[in-house]
Amino acid sequence: MRIAYISTCRPRECGLATFNENLVQAVDRYLPFAASGSFMVALNDSDDKYQYDYDERVRFVISQEQLADYQSAAAFINRSGVDMCCIQHEFGIFGGSAGSHLLALTRALNVPYTVIFHTVLQRPDTMQLSVTQALADGAAKAVVMSKKAVQLLREVYHIPANKIQRIPHGVPDFDRPDVAAIKRSLNFPAGKTLLTFGLLGPNKGLETAIRALPAICKQHPDVRYIILGKTHPGIRRTSGEDYRESLHQLARQLNVEEHLVFISEFVNEGDLHAYLSACDIYLTPYPNEAQITSGTLSYAVGAGAAVVSTPYWHASELLRGRGKLFDFNNSEQLATIVNGLLSNPSELNQLKQHAFKYGLSLRWPIIGKHYALLFENQAAINKKPALLPQGTFMQVTLSLSRPLSWKAYS
Fold it and tell me: How many whole angstroms separate alpha carbon 18 and alpha carbon 90?
């Protein structure tokens, strides 16, 4: 079956782009991508269609704020002969108020679509509520990744239960590595290591972790806290590296700067898995509960890391029996938990084992099968649209901003 995947796409450095790439590869095991003529529709965050060097799988590019692009994308998809669309949804990816431009695309589609909600807000404003409801109402299925998200879709957005499907966030399917060899290859700091990774921004609560360092270092002087990741591109555009510098300044004020290591890179999944496997404790100190899905947390559990986190929604659900929770903005409590684990290797290793065991059920080959079955069932209850003649189809492609290949449709 032919599927059009609508998302940010690599090489754009974006969590959704990574998720979409993994989803395509995982589903490909069961529903071959190239052989069927599936393709991607990419979202750019500027008006430059050539902003990113996409590969040939991307057949159409939408400039985030250009409403006409969404309408043209719908026309392109309708004439491509696909059986369905899969849309990755996150606020801030699509143009218009609360991403409302996306509705111009979905309402014009003649094929069914599945929408994967990466964020479900508990207290949406009027526009966010309206857009989310419209997307879910028009979808054949609305996919979320946690039980809390299912609850919110039903109670806040009034989406029928039979339209919602929960599929956990997938994680890479890597072998358990040789930790000592990894530490040597990554030039890991000597001693004990704490780790946080992801795009940097004030909503990550990194200040709480840094404020916990003095008490941690007092008991464990060899500790290093590694913050792995670039500053979020939206923040970098408006404020440069001011936020990262503020974290440096806080560490200097607390006399723990030598215990703080910044690695400003967007690492590939292989290296990320290596960092997660090599660290002693992984921290997610998010400052509020309204985090319905965290890919970084899923990756950490999938790699078998010992996770210490604030009790945001996804963490409260995923870490039950597999990690440790501390109160929001409570650096003293964080320090106590970290010191306790670093002083008790057997408890630390037990957490890692529990996480790794559960993470096996989150591997992308397993998650990909769930999506493939969902897509197959969706196609089975919807009549497949007939392909238009090549000449008619090409009349549409001539108006597009990116050159297209006909090979996938021959």
Answer: 13
46 with 138, same domain?
yes
Question: Could you give the CA distance from residue 10 to residue 263 in angstroms, rounded to a whole number?
Answer: 21
d(CA 317, CA 267): 27
Task: Judge if 285 and 296 occupy the same domain.
Answer: yes
Domain count, the chain: 2
Sign of CA dihedral 114, 94, 264, 294: negative
Gap between the terminal Cα atoms of the chain: 14
The strand pairing partners of 224, in sequence order, are: 193
- Give the global pTM: 0.86
- Residues 32, 159 share a domain: yes
Q: Which residues pair with 43 in a beta bridge?
A: 62
Which tokens is 336 given?
């106590």
**Phi, psi torsion values for 290, nearest 5 degrees:** -80, 60
Q: Give tens-digit pLDDT for 14-50.
A: 889 999 999 999 999 999 999 999 999 999 999 999 9
Can you give the residue range of the structural domain that contains 254? 179-361
Q: Please tell me whether the peptide bond between 11 and the residue prior to it is cis, using omega within 30 degrees of 0.
A: yes
